[in-house]
Amino acid sequence: MDLSEGARAAVRDAVSAPRSYQSREHIVRDGLEDTAVRVLLSGFACRYKYLPDGSRQITTFIVPGDICDFGFLSDSPASQSVVTLSHSTVGMVDLDRLAGIVEQYPEVMTAILRCAAIEHGATNELLVSLGGRNALHRVSHLLCEMHFRLNKAGLVREDGSFDLPLTQAELGEALGLSTVHVNRTVQVLRRLGLATWRDKVVTLPDPEGMRSLCSFDPGYLQAR
After folding, report:
1. Run of H or E including 162
2. Phi, psi of 220 (to 5 degrees)
3. Which domains are assigned to the chain?
């Protein structure tokens, strides 16, 4: 959603000095009662939850421009942790100051709610993958989603490549697959000429072919 210049300036002025985080450093801990909205300005992060058996379920990948946690909308503590997957910078907006901005520019709250709705849609798609897609379609669908989201952020190169600084084990933690299964699936995509993943860089030489393979429809990632 496009904001008016006045709203953009108000939000920009409200962002505190960005804080830098090293890779695998926590931005938000489960149970945190925060007084600020945290926005990822650069880098890559994920939201996750530990299960009783000690395994970890990644529920969301966070890219530049995304809000790290939406607990502030319900005045509730964070229900999951957020950790960086690369060197990252995060800006914070104090909630009291945000309330003043929203009072002056209601469109800002509309934009926040639409961001929350997009994330909800992405979470729903992940549930569909976990419950109904095979390994090939799980991996290809998530790579299509990352390509689409990062392209919107201006982070996809002309050759269709983009940085994806997570391990195949971490991708498996999102998709309910073992590292070995993820690796085999990536090799299948390489042989099909649809994707390569080398040195934390993913390339989709044929994005449309990749979308067709897994029936990817980006409508759930677009605010209207």
Report:
1. strand 161-163
2. -70, -10
3. 5-122 (2.60.120.10), 134-221 (1.10.10.10)
Q: If pLDDT is split at 50, 70 and 90, which confidence band does 10 have?
A: very high
Amino acid (1-letter code) at residue 78: A
Q: Looking at residues 50-59, what average pLDDT do you find?
A: 93
Q: Going by DSSP bridges, is the β-strand pair 201-203/36-42 parallel, antiparallel, or unpaired? A: unpaired
- Distance from C-alpha of 164 to C-alpha of 211, rounded to nearest angstrom: 18
Tokens of 155: 């982070």
Which stretch of DSSP H or E encloses residue 37?
strand 36-42
Q: Which residues are bridge partners to 191 per DSSP?
A: none
Q: How far apart are CA 182 and CA 188, in angstroms?
A: 10
What are the φ and ψ backbone dihedral angles of 33, each rounded to 5 degrees? -100, 100
Q: Look-up: residue for tokens 């509730």? A: 76
Q: What is the mean pLDDT of residues 154-173?
A: 95
Q: Which two tokens stand for residue 152?
A: 């919107």
Cα–Cα dist 91/2, whole Å: 20
Q: CA end-to-end span of the chain, whole Å?
A: 7
